[in-house]
Amino acid sequence: MTAKIKVIRTTSEKKNHRMAVAFALPAAAFSLLLIIYPLFTTIKLSFQDVKFIGSLTDDTAGFTIANYTKLFSNADFWRALGRSLIFTFSALSISFLIGLVLALLLNKKFHCQKLVRTLILLAWPIPGVIVGLLFIWLFDGNYGIINTILKSLHIIDQNVKWLSAGNTAMVTVIIATIWKSYPFFTLTLLAGLKGISEDYYEVASIDGANAWQRFTNITLPALQSVIVTSLLLNGLWIFRNYDLIYTITGGGPNQATETLPLLLYNQAFKYYNMGYASTIGMISLLVCSIFVVLAMPSLKKQFY
Amino acid sequence: MNTLNRRKFKRAGMYALIILSVVILAFPLYWMIVTSLTTRSALLENISILPKPKNITSSNFMKILDSQPILTWFGNSIFVTAFSTIIAITVSTMAAYSMSRYKYKSTNFLGFFLLVVRMLPETLLVVPLYMMFTHMKLINNYASLIISNITFIIPFSTWMMKGYFDSIPNTLEEAARIDGCSRLQAVRKIVIPLATPGIAATSTYSAILGWSEFLFARTFITRPDKWTVTVGISSLMGEYTIIWGEVMAAAAISIIPIALVFIFLEKYMVAGVTAGAVKG
């Protein structure tokens, strides 16, 4: 009797497992073919000194670490890496603060809430290229409205040629990136805030905690894993951003805004140095992995 | 009395902050619309934040639609985005259901794997994918673009959908199965209808990703008549003189579909992110 039940259970269990695998198979197949296979190609290419013009110039090129030694001794690479880190850190921290403040505001009750929420989040679905074009126009050196506004507020007396000088070009690119990336923080943090029970705040108020104490002792700890996950996802997005910077400056002037993704793309599709470009890709991947490893404990907590 | 005044004061401060944020953050989009509706001479002479009625014109839209194949690019983008979204949503809904309902090592591993894949930089993969598609003679063929889009949409949408399925109690399906439904029938009749808001939110997200895509489209599609809207519009910057009224008109046209979809489905997005990306 018991044996019979056991047999039935295992066949249904096997059927279940087959179904689970069948359902998951297409997603796994896409990822394997288009991500894992190319990833291995990249690793291989990064150890080969090859160009690609229609086909690889030297398909049988032996393995060498020439690309890596060339990269590490190249000042352009170190500068691009430094710029990438400065760009990511400043855009990420400011958009996080803006996103957090807006999420706290939108979590309160007020008139026209839905309209305000839509207006605040509307930057999110705008393609990076379009955001780029828009900010070139806003920060235009001759006819840009930002210069006009700053002049009327007496912050500057003369038009600033934002995109002609390195530092101001970087500032422009960072502001555009912040505008594109804060809505994601607002959206995720707002969702996190909605999950915190009112009771905690009531009890804390009865105990005499002020607003700042309630924020640091209830809100922040409750949001911790949401904060880490959204910082990671947005940080990776900013670090590997290509379209926005490409549109606004193309990496210029004088490479002042050339971050790693732009350096990689130019090496690959301007000079066709696929091996060298792949090496830059491997270093980018390494930087991304460091972010991921740092956020891993919190990711595990959130997803499993 | 004192506390009442304080409360009023705080409330006024909150409204001031809200109005200030909306004014600053919505300004770039406002300026896009104003520019697209302003005559060329007015833009170059005396710009003011509030548009003057005598400077308003629709000629920018007419001219840019006349001189550039905006509508062709628009159609290409709709084709690519629709195909990518439909396939990606089908594939990821299946995977998400499997991850949510069956707790096997293989399904858990897939979930973790997709999470890692989500972290990979696109620029890293564009080189080998370009070489692969050149060998397969798929350059200038939308298949290359659609396949790459799908691959990058799947990790996002699978995790979002999994969150939705997790929020639908298993007991409903069990009840249906006791009443004689097969597992697939239970999925079709109970789970899918309940997950519709989630599917709507995930589709919106996927469509946004597909519509915005630039890197793959720029690399895999080189013929101007086959460009998507993002590549086409960025090419306007290469023109000798940039007529900003017309460029902003083109930009405004290109974001209409995605802005409309977002405005109508935004409430599902907030809920969807709660369920998916930010599972408590």
UniProtKB/TrEMBL annotation, chain A:
<keyword id="KW-0813">Transport</keyword>
<feature type="transmembrane region" description="Helical">
    <location>
        <begin position="20"/>
        <end position="40"/>
    </location>
</feature>
<feature type="transmembrane region" description="Helical">
    <location>
        <begin position="118"/>
        <end position="139"/>
    </location>
</feature>
<feature type="transmembrane region" description="Helical">
    <location>
        <begin position="274"/>
        <end position="296"/>
    </location>
</feature>
<comment type="similarity">
    <text>Belongs to the binding-protein-dependent transport system permease family.</text>
</comment>
<keyword id="KW-0472">Membrane</keyword>
<dbReference type="InterPro" id="IPR000515">
    <property type="entry name" value="MetI-like"/>
</dbReference>
<dbReference type="Pfam" id="PF00528">
    <property type="entry name" value="BPD_transp_1"/>
</dbReference>
<feature type="transmembrane region" description="Helical">
    <location>
        <begin position="218"/>
        <end position="239"/>
    </location>
</feature>
<feature type="domain" description="ABC transmembrane type-1">
    <location>
        <begin position="81"/>
        <end position="295"/>
    </location>
</feature>
<keyword id="KW-1003">Cell membrane</keyword>
<protein>
    <submittedName>
        <fullName>Carbohydrate ABC transporter membrane protein 1 (CUT1 family)</fullName>
    </submittedName>
</protein>
<feature type="transmembrane region" description="Helical">
    <location>
        <begin position="85"/>
        <end position="106"/>
    </location>
</feature>
<dbReference type="InterPro" id="IPR035906">
    <property type="entry name" value="MetI-like_sf"/>
</dbReference>
<keyword id="KW-0812">Transmembrane</keyword>
<dbReference type="GO" id="GO:0055085">
    <property type="term" value="P:transmembrane transport"/>
</dbReference>
<keyword id="KW-1133">Transmembrane helix</keyword>
<dbReference type="GO" id="GO:0005886">
    <property type="term" value="C:plasma membrane"/>
</dbReference>
From TrEMBL, chain B:
<keyword id="KW-1133">Transmembrane helix</keyword>
<dbReference type="GO" id="GO:0005886">
    <property type="term" value="C:plasma membrane"/>
</dbReference>
<feature type="transmembrane region" description="Helical">
    <location>
        <begin position="139"/>
        <end position="159"/>
    </location>
</feature>
<dbReference type="InterPro" id="IPR000515">
    <property type="entry name" value="MetI-like"/>
</dbReference>
<protein>
    <submittedName>
        <fullName>Carbohydrate ABC transporter membrane protein 2 (CUT1 family)</fullName>
    </submittedName>
</protein>
<keyword id="KW-0472">Membrane</keyword>
<keyword id="KW-1003">Cell membrane</keyword>
<dbReference type="Pfam" id="PF00528">
    <property type="entry name" value="BPD_transp_1"/>
</dbReference>
<dbReference type="InterPro" id="IPR035906">
    <property type="entry name" value="MetI-like_sf"/>
</dbReference>
<feature type="transmembrane region" description="Helical">
    <location>
        <begin position="109"/>
        <end position="133"/>
    </location>
</feature>
<keyword id="KW-0812">Transmembrane</keyword>
<keyword id="KW-0813">Transport</keyword>
<feature type="transmembrane region" description="Helical">
    <location>
        <begin position="70"/>
        <end position="97"/>
    </location>
</feature>
<comment type="similarity">
    <text>Belongs to the binding-protein-dependent transport system permease family.</text>
</comment>
<feature type="transmembrane region" description="Helical">
    <location>
        <begin position="190"/>
        <end position="211"/>
    </location>
</feature>
<dbReference type="GO" id="GO:0055085">
    <property type="term" value="P:transmembrane transport"/>
</dbReference>
<feature type="transmembrane region" description="Helical">
    <location>
        <begin position="242"/>
        <end position="265"/>
    </location>
</feature>
<feature type="domain" description="ABC transmembrane type-1">
    <location>
        <begin position="74"/>
        <end position="265"/>
    </location>
</feature>
<dbReference type="InterPro" id="IPR050901">
    <property type="entry name" value="BP-dep_ABC_trans_perm"/>
</dbReference>
<feature type="transmembrane region" description="Helical">
    <location>
        <begin position="12"/>
        <end position="33"/>
    </location>
</feature>
